[in-house]
C-alpha cells in the first residue's frame, strides 16, 4: 500500500506541477511532436489542451485521434536525466463541444492554471481537446517504472486524494 501511495503522489505531482507536455500526433503519416500547455482533471482521467486550428498538431488530430502525451519533470544538471520523473500517456483525443458542462468545467479549470490564456477563448480558431489515457508508463526514478492503464491512473489519483 505504501508503494501505491508513493506512485500516486508522484503521478499527481507531475500532473499538477508541470504546465507543458509534449504532444505526439501523426501528420500525413509521419510523427509530429509539439509542446502544449495542458491541464489535468481532478482524477487524472483526462488531460485537456486548448489548441488553435492553425497549429500543425490540430491538423494532425483531424487525421487521427490517437495521441501520445509526455509530461516530464524539469531537468537539472545535478541529476541523471534518465532518473527524471515522467509520465508517457497513450490515448485518444476528442474535441469538447462548447455547449456542454464538460467544456465549461474544462475552461474554468484551465483558466485557473493559465489565466493569461483568457484571450484565446475569444478567438474563433481555438478549441479544447480532451485526451483520455488508455495506457501509460510512469517513471519515478532510475529503474522505478510502472505500467498503468487509464483506469489505474485515475484510481491512483482518487486513492491519493482520498475521494472516489
Automatic annotation (TrEMBL):
InterPro entries: HutZ, Split_barrel_FMN-bd. This is Pyridoxamine 5'-phosphate oxidase family protein.
